[in-house]
Amino acid sequence: MNGRKNDETGSKALAKPGSAADAGSLDISSLSDDECRAIEGMYFNIQPYSIHDGPGIRTTVFVSGCPLRCRWCQNPESYTSEPKLFFMEERCIGCGACIEACPNGAVLLRGGKAVTNRETCDGCGLCVGACPAGARSIEGLAGTAGEVASKVLEDKMFLAPSGGGVTVSGGEVLSQPRFVASILRLCKSEGLTTCIETSGMGSRESLHAV
Question: What is the reported pLDDT for 18?
Fold first, then answer.
């Protein structure tokens, strides 16, 4: 993921999905494939044709949530698990379309750039669709392990012959061990190789589960 984004929602996140991603035991070995498919979690990107995240051609899944705040982080949008409104100031052309789209009057122009009042913004995301320059985005998606695995497996015919597969990155993968382990299990059962990228910042139980 490239490009640094600013969190426009401050401490006010969008509605948190009802996720059972890490409820109960972290070990999924006793679960059926259907139960694994139903496990919910948060992710913010699925990037095809990744050639630097493991052997062969890979699809990289970026999950949300990380306990660290590294100054050199490439994906600051992954810090928390909740969906958030982000703004890339360098893309803003000052057209005012976001101002017209906002039902709460939370956006104004300052110095030719759109600025969001974090206290007034409720994170509805209407400004995202209205922005012609792509300066605004909602980062963070709720989904099931089955949905993510199915997306990865759409490219199985390209991944498998190269010895490639799926890599789960983040964020920190150990923040959602059951979700990540389920994605890996479902993809591995289809003949794909599996990798994770982790700082190791998590419990021993989380690491063993993944």
Answer: 36
Instruction: Output the pTM of the full model.
Output: 0.74
> Which positions ≥6 away from 103 have C-beta within 8 Å?
124, 126
Kindly state the average pLDDT of the residues 14-38: 71
DSSP string covering 57-117: SEEEEEE---S---TT-S-GGGSSSS-EEEE-GGG-----HHHHH-TT--EEEETTEEEE-
Show the tokens assigned to 130.
């209205």
114 with 92: CB under 8 angstroms?
yes
Name 138's bridge partners. Answer: 85
- Picking from 193, 192, 196, the residue whose alpha carbon sits closest to that of residue 175 is 196
Tell me the DSSP string of the chain.
--S--EESSTT-PPPPP---TT-S-S--TTS-HHHHHH-EEEEEEEEEEESSSSSSSEEEEEE---S---TT-S-GGGSSSS-EEEE-GGG-----HHHHH-TT--EEEETTEEEE-TTT-----HHHHH-TT--EEEE-EEEEHHHHHHHHHTTHHHHGGGT-EEEEESS-GGGSHHHHHHHHHHHHTTT-EEEE-----S-HHHHHH-
Residue 48 confidence (pLDDT): 94
pLDDT tops 60 at residue 14 = no
